[in-house]
Write a structure and sequence with these properties.
Largest sheet: 8 strands, mixed
Number of strands: 23
Helix content: 25-40%
Distance between the termini: 12 Å
Shape: globular
Length: 524
């Protein structure tokens, strides 16, 4: 994809400051005889340093460092010299690390007149960890998150200038990993399981890099990682960047959701997830990663073993073959398992571990919009329904659900183990959907009639068989469903109440949603 030029132009540029030059002549000058400025974007970890301007243009705006380049002045030397003067530090404390691009900007409040056309030659740079002060043209400086979020004291009161916003999107932080820690990459880190896993790994002393194509919704990046990369892992160069200097990879990234999404988006899921799985796997091999965890799914198991809710058997790992998986989602997961296994056979320096997730649930995950899974949807409905509790199908379909703490524990134990074949990560506590709805309503203090409606149901019965994981690890998931779902309900109920207090209409949250078919766009 061709790189787009970053261009910002203020509205209202009509004439020179004194009005002495005819408008058409003045515009011609601005468009063809620009000022040239060299800007440095100071980056440290996941933050960028911006200083508040006292003068025009953009008075009161937090800006990058640098300034106007004069005749016969070296470009990089100009940027370093101007930055050193603005921050009152020696020039040798500043190092340019990357050329970001040459950009165009026009301002209607410039000191050069009511308009100024500027060509900005922009570099990424770093500085030593020394005290910073400011010259007479700047009054303040702050470290801002690269993801564009604002410090709490500026929220609701300030927005970044479009030029700065554009730069934040193309900055690549220089990786500074602590060498005495195991360095891990968690893909899908902004998601439900990924954020919980990253948080646990970070608390245990690992250096955690998180990667995802969306920003986290329910946690801050600092909660679950040291470095967050907002990148599209369908693109190989992004995967190579994410895997650089990493020891272990936990590949949890996937485009997925509950039955309301999976059964109406087969092509999107098949394309996106296959691209992600293969790219991350090859990038891990290319960058010398030593251990690789792949998050698979219970959807890999044959449909004919899951079509009788009255005689549901626990799914054993070896029963995945001969294959007849559920939907494209299950097929691409099984394919990715086999690819990861073959990589490990042909490149033994890359050890592969595989876990098959069975209905993982808990707090800090999607609970509305159609991509949520059954536990979150039922908690939302229990919190909002007043007369009837709506659910898809006849309610006799059965599932087992595994609480997030058990899931994270299993992933870490599997990753550290010597076992290279797939293992189930699930609970053996199976329940029908009707009984599950009643359980969640009991926790909510309600006793509503069930309303069974037509909708995506998935298989008729699914339960994890945990004999193998217990044999291999000497451990298996054990948190009771009622214990985990009570915690989940309390969290989702609080989210609903917060939306009510903010004035949002939550009445439709008692209904079920099927996500419309969406095309996969590599340029999203």
């Amino acid at each position: 994809m061709a790189k787009q030029l970053l261009k910002y132009k203020d509205e209202g540029i009509v004439k020179s400051s004194g009005g002495l030059i005819p408008k058409d002549v003045y515009k011609l000058i601005l468009d063809n005889v620009p000022l040239v400025c060299v800007d440095l974007v100071i980056v440290r970890d996941n933050k960028v340093f911006l200083i508040k301007r006292r003068n025009k243009p953009c008075e009161g705006i937090y800006w990058v460092q640098g300034g106007r380049m004069f005749k016969n002045e070296d470009i990089e030397e100009c940027g370093i010299k101007k930055t050193a003067a603005e921050l009152n530090i020696p020039a040798d404390k500043i190092r340019i690390t990357k050329y970001l691009g040459t950009f165009s900007s026009e301002f209607n409040d410039s000191e050069q007149g009511s308009a100024s056309h500027t060509v900005n030659i922009t570099f990424q740079a770093e500085i030593d960890d020394i005290p910073l002060t400011f010259d007479a043209d700047h009054s303040d400086g702050k470290w801002f998150d690269i993801n564009g979020s604002l410090p709490s004291e500026l929220e609701g009161q300030y927005t970044h200038h479009p030029y700065v916003t554009g730069l934040l999107k193309i900055i690549e932080p220089q990786r500074r990993m602590v060498t005495d820690k195991i360095k891990v990459l968690v893909t899908g880190a902004a998601g439900f399981i990924g954020s919980h896993l990253g948080k646990r790994l970070k608390s245990e002393g690992y250096y955690v890099v998180g990667a995802d194509w969306v920003a986290p919704e329910f946690m801050e990046p600092n909660d679950f990682c040291h470095e967050f990369l907002n990148v599209d892992l369908r693109v190989m160069r992004n995967c190579l960047k994410a895997c650089e200097e990493v020891d272990w990879v936990f590949n949890l990234a996937a485009d997925m959701g509950g039955m309301g999404f999976i059964q109406s988006n087969h092509s999107r899921i098949g394309y996106n997830n296959t691209m992600i799985s293969l790219n991350v796997l090859e990038a891990a091999r290319s960058k010398g990663v030593t251990r690789f965890f792949y998050s698979s799914s219970a959807c890999v198991y044959p449909l004919h073993n899951q079509n009788d809710s009255d005689n549901t058997i626990g799914l054993k790992e070896e029963s995945a073959w001969p294959a007849y998986p559920q939907d494209i989602y299950g097929l691409e997961k099984l394919y990715a398992e086999e690819m990861a296994t073959k990589y490990a056979e042909e490149f033994p320096e890359l050890q592969v571990r595989i876990g098959r997730f069975h209905g993982i649930y808990g707090e800090y995950g999607t609970w509305k919009g159609g991509r949520e899974k059954v536990p979150a949807a039922f908690c939302r409905k229990a919190a909002t329904s007043e007369h009837l509790f709506e659910l898809w199908g006849d309610g006799h379909q059965k599932r087992s659900f595994c609480y997030i703490d058990d899931c994270v524990e299993a992933v870490i134990r599997i990753m550290k183990s010597d076992y290279s074949k797939p293992l189930n990560i699930g609970s053996e506590e199976m329940i029908s959907m009707n009984d599950f709805a009643r359980l969640v309503m009991k926790i909510a203090g309600k006793d509503l009639a069930l309303k069974n409606i037509k909708g995506p149901e998935g298989v008729r019965g699914r339960n994890s068989d945990n004999d193998l994981i217990e044999k291999v690890l000497g451990w298996k998931p054990s948190i009771p469903l009622e214990t985990g779902i009570r915690k989940t309900y309390d969290w989702i109920s609080a989210q609903v109440q917060a939306e009510k207090l903010s004035g949002l209409n939550t009445s439709l949250y008692s209904e079920s949603t099927v996500v419309a078919t969406e095309a996969s766009d590599i340029n999203d």
